[in-house]
Amino acid sequence: MTDMLKLQGVHTHIGQYHILHGVDLAVPRGQLTMLLGRNGAGKTTTLRTIMGLWQASQGSVTFDGRDITKTPTPEIAQAGIAYVPENMGIFADLTVRENMILAARGGEIDAARLKWIFGLFPALEKFWSLAAGVLSGGQKQMLAIARAIVEPRELLLIDEPTKGLAPAIIMNMVQAFRELKSTGATILLVEQNFLAAKLLGDHVAVMDDGRVVHTGAMAELAEDTTLQQKLLGLSMDAHQ
Amino acid sequence: MTAAADAPPTAALPKVRVDYLPMLLVPLLMLVALPLVGSVSTWVTLTVAALAMGMMIFLMASGLTLVFGLMDVLNFGHGVFISFGAYVSLIALGPLAGWVESDNLLLNIGVLLACILVAMLVTGGLGYAFERIVIRPVYGQHLKQILITMGGMIVAEQMIHVIWGASPIPLRLPEGLRGAIVIGDAAMEKYRVIAVVLGLTVFGIMHLVLNRTKIGLLIRAGVENAEMVEALGYRIRRLFVGVFVAGSALAGLGGVLWAFYRQTLTAGMGMEVNVLIFIVIIIGGLGSVGGCFIGALLVALVANYTGFLAPKLALGSSILLMVVILLWRPQGLYPVAKR
């Protein structure tokens, strides 16, 4: 199995703060890799560094064999990486339709793909002509993910998609990600919800203090409560 | 595609609230002024004059509000493009002097359009250079932006003095645009009516571009969240330059109309109107073209009615209007959603 994305010794500074201290991470093609870690571990910074929104001060980011460490963000996106930020990045004054059209760089949305997206997230079809700002938190998250998959992308970077969502909506989201996985999509997913991570992840990388401190199969971590406690500080409550 | 079946029942369709209140302020203000002014003919004259003034202010301010909304740039040098636009219209006026004095209305309008075209081309080019040389090094640094753009405006004013001299230059309106249209007892200056038509046309075009084209979609999205637009694969810097050039060209257009309105050219005319422009974009909501349009009309109507009813208050009427609007809506009439 080849790695679609590879980070080697990546350091990132934001102003005077040194956030990433040499991140090594590999995202295998066609798999869903979970990026876990406590708050402030550097997960969001890692995603933003991959997207070029913050520049790595040291180390390299390789996507599909191409060094993208210093590549401008639009070119990274054009290369086939879609990004869903933690705040979802929805354009509130634009309609759901306009948000989607903007993401379809070809100009037109493929009808069959749109139908598939409406199948994943039915609310979007219902609210198609409404301003995205009036949607609920869960619907906005659906729109953010739909926007990322409006055209086929090589790699999806998704930052905490279940944050702040009701349990029923989280399960709906998990189902949607399973559907996405079944299409062979390569996904790097930052998640705080361990239950969702367990249900979805093929691989896992755990971050702490700006470094990746553990990598392996998600199923192994899901079964090893001692390791979970050590890496993530999780109690049994996290599994319920 | 099983997620659809498991989806929780969707909530009732949320209603989109269209905020009509700021739009209603303009006709409301006109209606309130009618009994206060007393005479219908005077009211018509005042109102048409105010609408013309409002359109010109809108043309001058619309570029600035987009530049601030999209680029987060405080361009205190925006007045440069107004002054330059007005002065470079002399380039077209020279060879077309015969058209200015002609009895043919089409030639008269032709000379005005030629002035506008030259002004927009020159100020658009100037805007491109201004963005690259003055603005680009200070992206994200508001204090430096204020200082350097004000400095740029002072330099540009001195350049106008060097090129065209320091004395004011009288500007004659083309023959067919002088005088007034009289309906009953109400007199409406022809030029002001043309300014209203031009202003409405430009507003209509801007509205169409912003709401019906991909470029417009990108601008509106960029005003909200420029970083996300980049993450979707668009080069926002190119858009910045394009909007800056368009905004400068619009200021040039406004400068030409403003100059013919005053019938005098002075190097400081851009700086003089700068304060008014900032009041308008603050009232409208920074980054909002629609808000800017309504703000410009309100400022002009209030200035004209106050000038007639209470001349001593006229000077401060715009500031007073801004204070009242901001007390009501602290982020302006149509605040733009920001990330």
Give an overview of the whole structure.
- The complex is a heterodimer of chains A (240) and B (339).
- With 240 residues, chain A is α/β, with parallel strands linked by helices.
- Chain A folds into 2 domains: 3-80 and 153-239, P-loop containing nucleotide triphosphate hydrolases (Rossmann fold, 3-Layer(aba) Sandwich); 91-151, no CATH class.
- Chain A is 36% helix and 28% strand.
- Chain A has helices at 43-50, 73-78, 96-103, 111-120, 122-126, 137-148, 167-182, 194-200, 218-223, 225-232; strands at 3-14, 17-28, 32-37, 56-63, 66-67, 81-84, 155-159, 186-190, 203-208, 211-217.
- In chain A, helix 3 runs parallel beside helix 6.
- Chain A starts with a strand and ends in an 8-residue tail after the last helix.
- Chain B is mainly alpha-helical and 339 residues long.
- Chain B has one domain: ABC transporter involved in vitamin B12 uptake, BtuC.
- Chain B is built from 13 helices and 4 strands.
- Chain B has a two-stranded antiparallel ribbon with strand order 1-4. Chain B has a two-stranded antiparallel ribbon with strand order 2-3.
- In chain B, helix 4 crosses helix 6, helix 4 runs parallel beside helix 7 and helix 6 crosses helix 10.
- The longest helix of chain B is centred in the first third of the chain and has 32 residues, at 40-71.
- The radius of gyration of chain B is 21 Å and the shape is globular.
- In chain B, 49% of the residues are buried.
- The model of chain B is unreliable at 1-11 (pLDDT under 50).
- The chains are: A alpha/beta (240), B mainly alpha (339).
- Chains A and B meet through helix 2, helix 3, helix 4, helix 5 and helix 7 of A and helix 1 and helix 9 of B.
